[in-house]
């Protein structure tokens, strides 16, 4: 005969562990997503264009804009590097 007093708590603990891992897996991406804010980035090109970007920091926003604008800056203006400065939108 099985010892039910021992197997039930073990099954319950296994279920709780699985549920906790699942909850953490879902929560962590949501926490990092919640920290993202909107930045206005000023690009050092003729006519001083701006671009609005969502990122977790000003430096990440600047990198996103640089990647986005690199081909255009090289093709149209012949520039291989572009300065970008970003501030948080209020």
TrEMBL record:
Name of the protein this chain belongs to: Uncharacterized protein
Species: Pseudomonas gessardii
Highest taxon, organism lineage: Bacteria
Lineage: Bacteria, Pseudomonadati, Pseudomonadota, Gammaproteobacteria, Pseudomonadales
């Amino acid at each position: 005969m099985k010892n039910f007093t021992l197997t039930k708590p073990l099954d319950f603990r296994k279920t709780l562990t699985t549920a906790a891992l699942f909850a953490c897996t879902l929560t962590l991406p949501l926490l990092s997503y919640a920290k993202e804010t909107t930045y206005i980035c000023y690009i050092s090109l003729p006519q001083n264009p701006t671009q609005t970007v969502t990122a977790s920091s000003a430096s990440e926003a600047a990198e996103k804009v640089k990647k986005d604008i690199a081909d255009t800056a090289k093709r149209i203006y012949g520039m291989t590097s572009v300065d970008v400065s970003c501030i948080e939108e209020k």
